[in-house]
Q: What sequence folds into this?
């Protein structure tokens, strides 16, 4: 544990006045290591807020570069970052250094997948999700349950948001109970609640349906609230429900999920099958030699097929779309670059216009979803 | 008995862009059956088989998940609110 000087605490005076935090809680935050997975709309708000709150070490992972259309909601970035073509994780590191030089930042400019996620999350006290797809969220959920790391899910699209804090249950073979179990605050995991990811193309994405800037900030700030409660040991204050809201329709629901662990037989936290961490559903990528194209093998659940009608409707706003019963082809212009996206019913895709796997995965996640 | 079904934004194109639909039914199965009889395109999105909802679709009655009550046989009473809640993937 790092020794913290009293003078280093001064800047957190207003936060330490809160009875749930105090100096002891502040010292816990300053000794904490947090994994921020994804540094887009959710991730920038999370990284910004936790750096200001004095979290000692932030680990930030993101595969993308900053685009002008990000600036509407991705609050750590500005026009100069776009001009300098900075990766999001690096731009975030530079901004955080200006916001709070006490915070250590480790960056991974990489695709987060089953081969590297455990290294990124190693020794972290909590995982916060700033992601845009469910494949990686279920991967984080596997890591959280396997290693008993709290994980806070957040999602947002259009004017809707959703967030939920996972305080994983231990396995009967584990030698001891976690502090949150001793506090009676363990919660069902993400797969207890959502058994399966929506298939690609089934749900709108921020790039097809749009997203209101404030709603993402609201979700991310809710995630930070739960993170601060957890990191300061206020486990019994953690929201036990799945929060779902629409800021345009003025609806807020707190969905009761506690029985999902008691009654359910979750593959992940009950049966200890870490399918995403084992790469069972991992989307593979292959650069197609001489074609300036990348093939993605997105594995769909057994028996499922992509719904071309739905995807064609969604992509029509972005360029020409042609589909038959075998394949769908769409011309997409993203951040000034032209891509040709070809989808097959089994989920396989070819993204033409790049040789970079990360770019192809990003185009797929943005316009098809996952 | 009449209940209100809340439709998520993503599925509204299948129900003439309505945010809620009132139907009659004494169980979730009957209520969703009445809804999908009225809007067959929605049924294709909700059901994996004749008696099975897609596993990425969650249905709540008064904010309680039906999977942990009596699933599609969960009883409904007058004025209950049935919500279809898909996971949100964006961010």
A:
């Amino acid at each position: 544990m790092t020794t913290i000087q009293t003078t280093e605490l001064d800047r957190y005076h207003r936060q330490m006045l809160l009875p749930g935090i105090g100096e002891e809680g502040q010292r816990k935050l300053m000794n904490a290591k947090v994994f921020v997975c994804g540094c887009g709309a959710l991730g920038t708000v999370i990284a910004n807020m936790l750096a200001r709150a004095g979290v000692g070490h932030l680990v930030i992972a993101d595969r993308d570069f900053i685009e002008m259309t990000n600036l509407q909601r991705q609050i750590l970035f500005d026009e100069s970052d776009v001009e300098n073509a900075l990766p999001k994780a690096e731009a975030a590191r530079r901004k955080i250094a200006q916001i709070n030089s006490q915070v250590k930042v480790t960056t991974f400019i990489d695709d987060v997948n089953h081969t590297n996620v455990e290294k990124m999350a190693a020794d972290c006290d909590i995982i916060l999700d700033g992601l845009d797809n469910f494949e990686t969220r279920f991967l984080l959920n596997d890591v959280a349950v396997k290693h008993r790391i709290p994980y806070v899910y957040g999602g947002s699209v259009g004017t809707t948001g959703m967030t939920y804090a996972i305080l994983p249950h231990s396995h009967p073979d584990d030698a001891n109970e976690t502090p949150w179990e001793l506090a009676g605050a363990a919660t069902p995991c993400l797969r207890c609640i959502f058994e399966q990811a929506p298939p690609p193309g089934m749900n709108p994405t921020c790039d097809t349906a749009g997203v209101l800037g404030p709603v993402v900030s609201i979700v991310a700030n809710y995630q930070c609230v739960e993170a601060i409660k957890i990191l300061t040991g206020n486990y019994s204050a953690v929201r036990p429900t799945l929060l779902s809201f629409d800021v345009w329709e003025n609806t807020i629901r707190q969905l009761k999920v506690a029985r999902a662990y008691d009654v359910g037989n979750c593959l992940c936290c009950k049966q200890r099958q870490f399918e995403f961490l084992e790469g069972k559903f991992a989307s593979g990528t292959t650069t197609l030699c001489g074609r300036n194209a990348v093939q993605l093998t997105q594995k769909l659940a057994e028996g499922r097929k992509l719904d071309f009608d739905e995807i064609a409707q969604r992509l029509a706003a972005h360029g020409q779309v042609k589909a038959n019963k075998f394949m769908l082809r769409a011309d997409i212009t993203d951040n000034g670059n032209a891509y040709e996206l070809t989808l097959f019913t089994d989920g396989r895709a070819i993204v033409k216009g790049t040789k970079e796997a990360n770019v192809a995965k990003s185009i797929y996640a943005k316009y098809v979803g996952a | 008995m009449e209940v209100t079904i809340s439709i998520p934004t993503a599925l509204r194109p299948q129900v003439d862009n309505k945010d809620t639909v009132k139907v009659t039914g004494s169980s979730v199965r009957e209520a969703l059956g009445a809804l999908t009889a009225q809007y067959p395109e929605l049924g294709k999105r909700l059901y994996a088989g004749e008696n099975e909802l897609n596993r990425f679709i969650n249905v709540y009655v008064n904010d309680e998940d039906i999977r942990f009550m009596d699933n599609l046989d969960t009883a409904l009473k007058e004025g209950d609110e049935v919500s279809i809640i898909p996971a949100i993937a964006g961010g």
Remarks:
- Residues 24 and 312 of chain A are 55 Å apart (CA to CA).
